[in-house]
Automatic annotation (TrEMBL):
InterPro entries: MoaB/Mog-like_dom_sf, MoaB/Mog_dom, MoeA-like, MoeA_C_domain_IV, MoeA_C_domain_IV_sf, MoeA_linker/N, MoeA_linker/N_sf. It comes from the Bacteria. Catalyzes the insertion of molybdate into adenylated molybdopterin with the concomitant release of AMP. Keywords: Magnesium, Metal-binding, Molybdenum, Molybdenum cofactor biosynthesis, Transferase. It catalyses: adenylyl-molybdopterin + molybdate = Mo-molybdopterin + AMP + H(+). This is Molybdopterin molybdenumtransferase. The lineage of its organism: Bacteria, Pseudomonadati, Bacteroidota, Sphingobacteriia, Sphingobacteriales. One of its GO terms (biological process) is Mo-molybdopterin cofactor biosynthetic process.
Amino acid sequence: MITVEEAKQLISENVSALKPVTLPLDQLAGHVLAKDIYAAYDIPAFKQSSMDGYAFRFEENLEVLTLIGEMAAGTSHSFEVKPGETSRIFTGAPLPDGADTVVMQEKIEKLENKIIVNDSQISIGTNVREKGTEIKAGALAMQAGDLIGPAAIGFLAGIGVTEAKVFPMPSIAIIVTGNELQQPGSTLKFGQVYESNSYSLSAALKHEGITQIESLWVSDDLKLLTATLNKALNQNDVVLLTGGVSVGDYDFVIEAAKNCGIDQIFHKVKQKPGKPLFFGTKNEKLIFGLPGNPSSVLSCYYNYVLPAIKTLSHKQNSVKTLQAKLTAGYQKPAGLTHFLKGIYKNDQATPLNAQESYRLSSFAQSNCLICLKENQQSFAPGETVDIMLLPH
Ligand SMILES: Nc1nc2c(c(=O)[nH]1)N[C@H]1C(S)=C(S)[C@@H](COP(=O)(O)OP(=O)(O)OC[C@H]3O[C@@H](n4cnc5c(N)ncnc54)[C@H](O)[C@@H]3O)O[C@H]1N2
Ligand code: MOO
């Protein structure tokens, strides 16, 4: 059995970013750029007003101007403003030819067709957005490696970009195994349990912006599981299986993986929960066999699956590890790293009750996993431990 650190190392050695794709602007959010973007145009594309007011050609001591026309936002015509003349202008409108300055309408007095400028602060260029001041044609707009957030989407739209080359999000199949599983909403018969793993996993994946997710259920049958796994592998970048990865007579994941030509990278990690975790690859595809207990599934997801998925999309791991002081002591046997569901607040971590891997009630309340070292048995109150902050 390998250690948690060895398992994480093996995954990172076997995962690299997916091949970049070109996506349209409205699908770029949440992706990392794979190629630099250069501006095609000067933006603003013309000299424009940043205020509602009056545009004129600035000259010292020029206070009375003659109104000769109007420039509204979106106008396609222009005219010339000579010294001593002015044009009514609105925010975003092009300056008329010859004008270089705008006075806000709050800072003038109007007498018929004359404008008196009452602005002691005004100087040449006041309230004017010069052409190309946001970006110049040919300049670097965004760099490969930049994460595209909402502001970046707006920026790219604003400079006329319609598509970009990015690292894609993986498509992911979730295969839940187990004859006992029933859908929430049905009445449980003796021996049945509600299926929850596909729900927690797909919620976690959607939280990452992943949209191509399919959930499949397979009974405990090697042939069926092999066929479903094969199909899922053909159609997806990642396959997450839950259950059937341990040593029971109806645990077929390891054998099905072999049947599908998956290379086993590891099976079983010195950890609780999630000891029977399986990880394999087939060409560039990743296969995680997550131990069926609902809490083991999520604990393995945050420790192993999420970092791998982030790497596929060329992103940083979003689970931050930091240190905190335990508010209570804890005892465990040596030999396995324990991940306790906990609450992190004010630099302190409190382990919750209900740590058993079949239970999710504590996970549902937690905001961190407290990592207790493999070979340490006793943890004192106030002792500093590593914690993983869970994305919320
Ligand atoms: N003799 C041994 N038995 C077990 C060992 C072991 O080392 N020796 N390891 C235990 C540990 S630790 C875990 S974790 C489980 C993992 O077993 P499997 O991955 O084979 O999972 P299953 O047996 O199929 O299910 C375990 C548990 O989880 C429930 N489950 C499964 N899928 C779902 C689902 N989609 N939604 C809700 N609940 C689910 C299932 O009913 C079982 O109760 O093995 C231990 N045994
Ligand atoms: O490792 Mo299992 O997930 O403890 O029950």
